[in-house]
Protein: Gas vesicle protein
Organism: Limnoraphis robusta CS-951
Amino acid sequence: MKLYNLYTYAFLKTPTEKLKLPVGITNPVLLITSGTLSAVVEPEVCLDTLQNDEECLIQAVLCHDRVIYELFQQTTVLPLRFGISFIEAKNLLIHLNSNAQEYQDKIEQLEGKGEYLLKCIPRKLQEPVLSPDLGGRQYFLAKKQHYQAQQNFDILQGAEWQNIVHLVTESYPSTIIIASTEAESRIYLLVKFKDEYLLTDQFLNWQKACPRWELQLGQVSPPYHFI
């Protein structure tokens, strides 16, 4: 039986042991294999229908992430972005054969590793509460002192950001840094599973070294940013 509209979640090495394949958007997913490389697909998924229904589209995106995460818990995967589909198996197999070496190399680079998100949120200097009884001169002096304190705070906060980047990249060369001057900045780390306990200790040290930033370390996830 021919399969059509193959919505594709991820590529992986053809498994030597049976995987527990999850249910996709509407149907169970399956493997389509070309030698040592396989694709995780769900047949009969019409993207046009999903994109015309906002609620269905949101659920499909959530489902996409869930399927990849369930696979990631079992084996190394090369996750694909939402919306990748092949008309039929023949097209998918041609694609796998044409890109087999590239995909296999990427999968090997990700073997035994996961992605962690380090959020870096700039703290704000608390403004002093000025007494309504302050006279004009005293009020002006208090505002001037706060302005100077804010300037010093910003300089130190900027230096701490540079320190965060240095400390993180020193330990984890495979990082992707998305800096923001106003909101939270994000650092994505590619970390070996066996080193997770070290990451937890390092995170505490990073926070101590950079008190003008609130650091938040997320849970391990598939390596979306390293493909």
About this structure: The first strand starts at residue 4 and ends at 13.
